[in-house]
Amino acid sequence: xxxxxxxxxxxxPGDFFVDSSCIDCATCRTLAxxxxxxxxxxxxxxxxxxxxxxADALRAKMALVSxxxxxxxxASKVPVRDAVGALxxxxxxxxxxxxxxxxxxxGAASYLVVRESxxxxxxxxxxxxxLMDGLEALGGVRTMFLSHVDDVADHSLFARRFACERVIxxxxxxxxxxxxxxxxxxxxxxxxxxxxxxxxxxxxxRGSAVLLYREQVLFTGDHLWGSADGKRLEAGRxxxxxxxxxxxxxxxxxxxxxxxxxxxGHGARFHAxxxxxxxxxxxxxxxxxx
Length: 290
Ligand code: SF4
Description:
CATH architecture of the largest domain: 4-Layer Sandwich
Structural class: alpha+beta
CATH superfamily of the largest domain: Ribonuclease Z/Hydroxyacylglutathione hydrolase-like
Strand content: 15-25%
Number of strands: 19
Number of domains: 2
Radius of gyration: 19 Å
Number of helices: 7
Largest sheet: 7 strands, mixed
Distance between the termini: 45 Å
Mean pLDDT: 97
Bound molecules: iron/sulfur cluster
Low-confidence stretches: none
């Protein structure tokens, strides 16, 4: 629970606040960008602007329940039941952002894909009871796609609750991940279903993989994300744990595929028509090679 006594002085005056336990994961800034902002002075999130509408207050409360370190609070202890009911948060009619980030994955984003042939949970949120119940109400989870070893959080609790098949690349399956039901091998794309293609993208980690859904959405883990200003695609050499040259080759491989959305584990989402997405990807590959 956030502590008023640890409230960051950079917060805008008012009810909502962020305390010093923030880890700068950006979950709040994704969910409520009109309320939360990054303070360069402290390198953490703060309340940049107190909510001035019911809609903004709801988004701020969704961030409060989703914050992985419980760093967000309200002086008045506002009830959050409506925010709990508003998660998962739709991005598209069949793709939802789960919220409820886990500190063990540094607040990585996770997503639910709702499909007639079985829902897919991409990476693992925190196994909070309200989220588990919400996923159940949306049809449960048949498949859990784990993009890489860092964003797996509470995967075993989701597997137990939903009896789902977990999928991860064999090169990232170590320790507790050895129990994962399906391990992918090699670097060629693997068809998981007619609308689901797993694409190994070694680089950030040896076993990183992205998931292409309906040639529309690319779930990218920590391989690829959008810039904070929404203008371009980015990848991070400073957070490349395996091989930057391999990650560059893996990025170029994505030019073979068409998609409109990049939904990452960390970093901003990116949405563009397919032609622009391709040109942004080409620019990124050129920068990585540069
Ligand atoms: S969600 Fe919590 S930990 Fe993450 S940036 Fe916001 S306040 Fe910080």
